[in-house]
Design the sequence.
């Protein structure tokens, strides 16, 4: 009998703190006809990984994430690596291709190998970008893009990004700059230099100044870190202004109730992760219009330490796991 090939992976068999994660050998996935098997070189620990591991507090959420234990044992959604095997119907990738992408909802990237459909949120790795950088971009960019598109960000519009130094925040600043908007970024002073280098026109330190008190108004206020509110932002929004939310269910209610109001709340969930957006991001990175912001790097084996750090809610940009 031939032995089933195995791989090293981080498994999560029960909801709980980062210590529930453990490294073990599991069967290596086998690609279907329209899938590629990717040997992962780098992945990330992001806020979604931590929320799914800890168990989202709302009871109905467990209908999707698993009632008594996590439905998907291997977390991790962002990845970069090399195609090892292609399914019989795959035409767009070949073994050896360097790729990057995001497998949200079903996860599986905290491992040595993952299978993804050819037409999933996956593309060739941007030229001149490391595996670590390529792994650290998809989630923040796609979440930011969903909001910015709904807010019609373009030249002549002004946006304030609250929580500009996080994963979604650093993406929102860079993309708003790319679309030509006037960008005000709110973060602590220690991140000013970074955030200016990403394209912010103005920076505000929230520990020293409350932007809602300075008399400035904006077309869009993007709460990229889920720490502000529509109520507190209203007076800082222009007529017809949009408050973009990234967290908290009450924003779904507000999005429904302000739908026909002058100032609106927009909360674009559930996120849609598409191949088209990953290809768009590849183009931006190759053109030098977008760069990965990496705070810390850990080997896969240190996933517990990495998750503890992400849960401080103080990371700057993204936290990468390297897979040797
Ligand atoms: N909608 C979705 O589908 C979705 C998916 C994933 C995550 N999320 C949510 O999106 C939010 C952002 O996630 P993320 O991964 O981008 O966050 P993150 O990277 O963990 O954010 C960390 C950053 O937040 C800043 N920060 C912390 N407290 C702050 C405060 N009180 N005011 C302003 N900035 C503060 C910190 O910067 P300083 O050092 O400058 O304070 C740090 O750089 C979270 O609430 C997360 O749950 C939503």
Sequence:
């Amino acid at each position: 009998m031939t032995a089933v090939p195995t791989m090293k992976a981080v498994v999560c068999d029960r909801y709980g703190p980062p210590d529930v994660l453990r490294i073990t050998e599991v069967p290596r996935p086998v690609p279907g006809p329209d899938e590629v098997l990717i040997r992962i070189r780098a992945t990330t620990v992001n806020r979604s990984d931590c929320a799914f591991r800890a168990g989202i507090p709302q009871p109905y959420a467990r209908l999707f994430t698993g009632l008594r234990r996590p439905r998907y044992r291997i977390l991790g959604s962002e990845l970069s690596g090399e195609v090892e095997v292609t399914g019989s119907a795959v035409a767009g990738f070949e073994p050896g291709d360097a790729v990057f992408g995001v497998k949200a909802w079903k996860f599986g990237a905290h491992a040595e190998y993952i299978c993804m459909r050819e037409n999933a949120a996956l593309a060739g790795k941007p030229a001149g970008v490391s595996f670590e950088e390529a792994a650290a971009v998809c989630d923040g960019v796609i979440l930011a893009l969903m909001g910015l598109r709904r807010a019609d960000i373009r030249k002549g519009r002004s946006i304030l990004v609250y929580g500009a130094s996080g994963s979604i925040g650093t993406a929102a600043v860079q993309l708003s700059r790319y679309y030509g908007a006037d960008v005000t970024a709110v973060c602590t002073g220690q991140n000013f230099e970074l955030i200016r280098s990403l394209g912010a026109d103005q920076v505000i330190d929230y520990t020293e100044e409350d932007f809602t008190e300075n008399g400035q108004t904006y077309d869009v206020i993007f709460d990229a870190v889920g720490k502000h509110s529509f109520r507190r932002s209203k007076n800082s929004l222009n007529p017809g202004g949009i408050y973009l939310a990234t967290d908290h269910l009450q924003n779904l209610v507000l999005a429904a109730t302000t739908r026909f109001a002058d100032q609106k709340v927009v909360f674009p969930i559930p996120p849609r992760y598409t191949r088209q957006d990953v290809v768009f991001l590849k183009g931006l990175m190759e053109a030098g219009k977008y760069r990965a912001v990496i705070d810390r790097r850990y080997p896969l084996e240190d996933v517990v330490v990495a998750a503890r750090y992400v849960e401080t809610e103080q990371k700057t940009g993204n936290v990468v796991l390297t897979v040797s």
